[in-house]
Amino acid sequence: MNNLKNQRAVLVETETDFSNYIELPNNNPLAIVDVELKIVYCNEAFKSNFGLGIGEEISKMNSNPEFVYLVKGFNESHYKNISVDITLSFENDTLVKNYFVRIERVFIKLQQYFVLSIESLEQRNKLENKINSIHNALDQGNFPLMILDNDKKITYVSKTFEIVLNRDLENIFNKQIDEVLSDYLNLAELDDLKNSLNNYTPWKKLVCFYKKAPAEYWEFKLNPVYENEFEKPNFILFANNLTEHINQTIAIERSEKKQKLIIDNISDLLLIVEKVGNFALFENANDNFCKSFGLDKNKIYSLKIDDFIPQNLSKEIYEAIFILTTKNVSFHEFIYKHFDNHEFNCKVTSVPESGSNLTYFIITLKDITEEIRYREQLKKAYHKEMQLNKMKSDFLANMSHEIRTPFNAVVGFSEIIDESIESGETEILRELMNSMKEVLGRALNLFTNIIEVSQIESGEIELEKVDLNCNHIIRNLSKKFEEDIQKKDIDFILELSNDDCVIEVDWVKFEKIVSSLLDNAIKYTDKGYVYVGSRIENKFVVIVIEDSGVGIEQSQIERLLKPFTQEIEGYTRPFEGAGLGLTIAYKLTQLMDGKFEIKSEKNKGTRIILTFPLSS
Question: Cross-referenced PANTHER family, in alphabetical order (predicted)?
Fold first, then answer.
């Protein structure tokens, strides 16, 4: 605060150019504004807290509107200073923060300014809360505490200690500590306490209050506190309630032998409960159970199981206890799924305690997660084996058909050639040779595709990427398919971007992708159109190949991306092919950092979208 006054005095006595002033350290936020509420000076604390600088208006502080009106009203008043609490909100923070603002009127060279010194109410409240918390903890909290002066007289006692000793404050305050505790200590214990007081050494004693029902056990600890080395120390006496701990120890010792035999012979999760009325109370558990449920057995002794285990498990245990107590059965089992996805086979057994009416229930939880996973893996492996067998059968059927068909054609053409040579009809030989080339080309293309799929699947394929304009490739490939399009009497629509759609891909592999997709579009379209287009969108080249053909069932799309599959398998399928073209196009697109997307609807056509990054 003194730093703030010094800084303010310097500002008043100097000129109105504030840029040369040196800021004192550890200041609260401070700003000087003119009568128009514009900032003419602000320190670093103000800038960092409110994000405003010289020349900006204080209305931008995002405060409650009354603050600005108050400053304006202060300008027109005759007050020298004024203080106000304000609230501020921040763009990057959803919380609203409170501040205390003091506004002082100053004149520099006959010009009026306002000095705004700002203090965070949060810091002030923290300090006040801390003081109040300490006071409440000592005076009204549940912590038994006494303070003794260096004459061994009690100068402070908490309310809880009054309750522990069952004495009013007037019967404790300003009395000697040995006098106050004389009703609870024997002569030897009192002598021990006096020796500790006289020698300024710590003292500790477990005190039992038998007059209370039930009896309570409190541990008293006395420690000297030195303010300096030249004066006698004061003393602090505090107490810990060990009643629950001692009662637990007594109960555990009583049943330790019996429970130890049970616990030591069970490796699974183990919980022991006692039925009292309508509730099952915690009696004991092994370490595996406590670890799995994050429990401390010392803190849950005699508590209802509903308070510390999941509701679905406690519900099953209560149902099992009901069955065991109402029906003549020796045990009950159920399956419990833990929150960490582990599954347990739970077995509940009743164990009556001899010589009393008490009955304990032992719950064992055997982890069967791995067993279930193993069964699921066997089931998945079985289904996978069935799928592989089907794929093998489909593959053999497709390959036998695709390989046998061209070679049957070659044999047939060979016989026709022999007959033509013998009959001297040599005019059709050229046409037959062209047909043979086409058939053999189809067989060669099949073998090439099989090898390429094998290389892709094994990761042995090599890419030689170059920058190329995909429009040139698409245009050239479209010309190669003109004859096939004319034969089927379908419309061919080519819409390529006027911009250079340059992408970085393997030239040969990209041609393979577009060629396979065009071949499929034409093959599966008997009427309507085939569309090919390209465009640039957000630094990506988008290539669309669309047809109005037979389309694909939505459920079959993912399967058709696997090799050697067609929507209709077997010898009766209406279209030729080994089912490799779509697979190769899909996998090559992914290998060249492209995106392959299929949108199709049965009997309405198919739309394939290829997306590649635009080359820089």
Answer: HISKA, TWO-COMPONENT HISTIDINE PROTEIN KINASE
